[in-house]
Amino acid sequence: MDLTDKVRAVVAANVAGDAAIAVSGGRDSMCLLDCVTRFRLIPTERLTAIHVNHMIRGAEADADEELVRRFCEERGVKCSVTRADIPALAKAHGRSTETEARLVRREVFAKFGGTVLTAHNKTDRTESVLMHIFRGCGINGLTGPTERDGFLVRPLIGCTRDEINEYVRLYRVPYSDDRTNAESDYARNYLRNKVLPLIRSRYPGVDDAVSRLGDAAKLVSRADGVTVSVGGSATVRTDGLDGSRVLAAMLAAGLTTDYTSEHIAAAVRLADARTGAGIDLPHGYRAEKESDCVRIYLKEDLPDEEHPFALGMTRFALGRYVLAERTDERVDKAGSIIDLGRLPSGAVLRTRRDGDVFTPFGGKRRSLGDWLIDKKVPRYLRSRLIYVADGREVLAVVGMAVGEALATGKDTTCAVRLTAGRDIRE
């Protein structure tokens, strides 16, 4: 099969409704976008192109964005662009720009809410698997990117970079070359530019060999008992917990490299630890014992922060925000609608503080910590929540519960819906 046939087969097997294509403007993603639209593999009215401008390369990044916008306009495809200051976010979070960019892209793709096609190819898979091996991975790390991973679909995963180059030449597909790809400072670029050419000179079939290894690893890896939450954390039940299931949870949470056998063994031992015990893992991840499971998550606590309550959007550090909008609704089981007329004049939006108390609707006044424990709110999530408060009195847990003081009723004349989220466009 040629490239078009391979892409057609993957799309037919994995895409049923609306879909998006992640398009950087580079050769691979422009090849995928051209192939899908040129041969109508997905109807244009059901297709969206997603572009993330990482704001790393200044005018060059802006030119990539313009290339994608212009191509989409010519093909009649909806184009969704997100601008994220990756260097600033990486500095704020203490992560590398590579890691920050990957996390931002993953969040953007997840927000689409449907199938997202990416341009990872067979050569990318070789690079990923070898990087995992060099960093010290388990069985899951040998899998690398596959045809489908949750909502992500990779139609080019069976195509080599040479096949992509030939398609681009044949159909004269416009694309941009990222000059940083020629620099070997980044780990993947070093592997691509320095190491793999030497390997291919002796083993020209390395891409096919690594793909077979990845397929075999996928068959033997164990992911039973692992649950991934909306926030991206992964939990695995403590019953019969072993290293392979801890590895599966790490992979599901996004931690795929640089862990050691000591990390895995320590996470397994959490099965017999007290609730709340935990260990730190590479790249800002943490494993923590909950009542009947171990959770793997990326640490990202909000600093102590306070803002006057106001309608509209209130922004917090790390891209977090609260959106307060008037609504005609009065009852919301999600606990996000308050009676604005009952809000004290000095009320604020803030993060959690020691000594906070909360009176839930229909309940008794008690410490906020005790209420969160009773509601089984995971420890890792408590410091990420945003609260409506008046002094030490918490009046609402945004997106989770409204207290007695702000509950809506028959006399409510102005109801406001509170929504918490994270906006990476800074």
UniProtKB/TrEMBL annotation:
Residues reported to bind ATP: S24, G25, G26, R27, D28, S29
Give me the reactions it catalyses.
cytidine(34) in tRNA(Ile2) + L-lysine + ATP = lysidine(34) in tRNA(Ile2) + AMP + diphosphate + H(+)
Asked if the Swiss-Prot or TrEMBL record annotates the protein with the keyword tRNA processing, the reply is yes
Q: Show where the Lysidine-tRNA(Ile) synthetase C-terminal domain sits.
A: 347-418
NCBIfam families given for it? Answer: lysidine_TilS_C, lysidine_TilS_N
Q: Which gene encodes it?
A: tilS
The keyword Cytoplasm appears for this protein = yes
> Record's domain comment?
The N-terminal region contains the highly conserved SGGXDS motif, predicted to be a P-loop motif involved in ATP binding.
Q: Name one GO cellular component term.
A: cytoplasm
Extract the InterPro entries matched here: Lysidine-tRNA-synth_C, Rossmann-like_a/b/a_fold, TilS/TtcA_N, tRNA_Ile_lys_synt, tRNA_Ile_lys_synt_N
UniProt lists the family membership as follows:
Belongs to the tRNA(Ile)-lysidine synthase family.
What Gene3D superfamilies does the annotation carry? HUPs
Which biological process terms from the Gene Ontology are attached to this UniProt entry?
A: tRNA modification
> Would you tell me the protein name for this molecule?
tRNA(Ile)-lysidine synthase
- The EC category is ligase
Per UniProt, the keywords (alphabetical) are: ATP-binding, Cytoplasm, Ligase, Nucleotide-binding, tRNA processing
Please list the GO terms describing molecular function: ATP binding; tRNA(Ile)-lysidine synthase activity
Assigned EC number: 6.3.4.19
Entry function: Ligates lysine onto the cytidine present at position 34 of the AUA codon-specific tRNA(Ile) that contains the anticodon CAU, in an ATP-dependent manner. Cytidine is converted to lysidine, thus changing the amino acid specificity of the tRNA from methionine to isoleucine.
